UniProtKB/TrEMBL annotation:
Protein name in UniProt: Multidrug ABC transporter ATP-binding protein
One GO MF term attached to the UniProt entry: ATP binding
PROSITE patterns, alphabetized: ABC_TRANSPORTER_1, ABC_TRANSPORTER_2
InterPro entries: AAA+_ATPase, ABC_transporter-like_ATP-bd, ABC_transporter-like_CS, ABC_transporter_ATP-binding, P-loop_NTPase
Domain ABC transporter: 6-240
Pfam families the UniProt entry points to: ABC_tran (PF00005)
Transmembrane segments: none
Entry keyword set: ATP-binding, Nucleotide-binding, Transport
Length: 311
């Protein structure tokens, strides 16, 4: 099927201000598609509108205008089918402390109308490595375990789309890796993944495509490799043959920083210079170069440049 997993068209959301407080425009005409079968990154600074968009898809927030469909079902015309097609792992850890993980999954499956014969409680607990905690009270679980339980709850009705809203916030490196291994398994099985994260290295490693939202507007939407290719700024670190009396200066350098008495970091745009030209201009300033290291641009560079440009 070529139809998008999620299709969003000119979506707007205005939160009415209380009393004399001004209205807040949270989403300003956002439009994009999430292709089926991909891991899709949705990035943006705090307050950019990401959670508002996810809450509209989940049915927790009503849009002001525009349209959205999930797995081909319009969220207004076919809300039940739309909600059945998506599982959402919230940013906040929300759970009932008096239910065991097994009971929580059984209850969630019942809310989605999954017949008992088709429930996958044991399978899901095994997948998120909680089978040994199946009958423990949820309040005794660690923060990482509770987050994994939320992932399992989102999958009880076998939705074709899983939305992960900052799923690794505050978890350790080992748990983060376990969670991403499971996400990759789900994706290989055909589940479309939508991911929001502040860990840009994760988005760069995991996502097939990335969209960036800032101030309620979509400012970029490209395949990850193409997005990273947008980075123009590069950094070169030079170890010089003498103490730095005056920083080497050139109109083409974007920034020059002294790291140690003999080490300098120079930022430049690869559209205007290459590393060889940078070093040549440093030599012209009277310095010999003992050692060189460079840093390739990454998603963080693009993210900062794009969000800074529309700040």
């Amino acid at each position: 099927m070529t139809q998008a997993a999620i299709s969003i068209d000119n979506l707007r959301k205005i939160y009415k201000g209380a009393g004399k407080a001004p209205d807040k425009l949270a989403l300003d005409g956002v439009s994009f598609d999430v292709p089926r079968g991909q891991i899709f990154g949705l990035l943006g600074p705090n307050g950019a509108g990401k959670s508002t968009l996810i809450n509209i898809l989940s049915g927790m927030v009503r849009k002001t205008s525009g349209s959205a469909s999930i797995w081909g079902f319009d969220i207004d015309a076919n809300p039940r089918n739309a909600k059945a097609s998506i599982g959402i792992v919230p940013q906040e850890i929300v759970f009932d402390p008096f239910f065991t993980p097994a009971e929580a999954l059984e209850l969630q499956a019942g809310l989605f109308g999954v017949p008992k014969a088709h429930r996958r409680t044991a399978e899901l607990l095994r997948a998120v490595r909680l089978e040994d905690k199946a009958d423990a009270y949820a309040r005794t679980l660690s923060g990482g375990m509770k987050r994994r339980l939320l992932v399992a709850k989102a999958m009880v009705h076998s939705p074709p789309i899983l939305v992960l809203d900052e799923p690794t916030a505050g978890v350790d490196i080992d748990l983060r890796q376990q969670l991403w291994d499971y996400v990759r398994e789900l994706n290989r099985a055909g589940v479309t993944i939508v991911l929001t994260t502040h860990y840009l290295e994760e988005a760069e490693e995991l996502c097939d495509r990335i969209a960036i939202i800032n101030h309620g507007r979509l400012i970029a939407n490209k395949p990850t490799a193409e997005m990273v290719g947008m980075a123009r700024d590069k950094l070169i670190v030079l170890t010089l043959d003498q103490d730095i009396a005056a920083l080497p200066a050139d109109p083409a350098f974007d920034k020059v920083s002294k790291l140690t008495d003999r080490m300098v970091e120079i930022g430049y745009s690869k559209d205007r210079l290459n590393a060889g030209q940078v070093m040549s201009r440093v030599r012209e300033a009277g310095y010999g170069i003992v050692d060189v290291s460079t840093r390739e641009p990454d998603l963080e560079d693009v993210f900062l440049n794009l969000t800074k440009a529309v700040a």
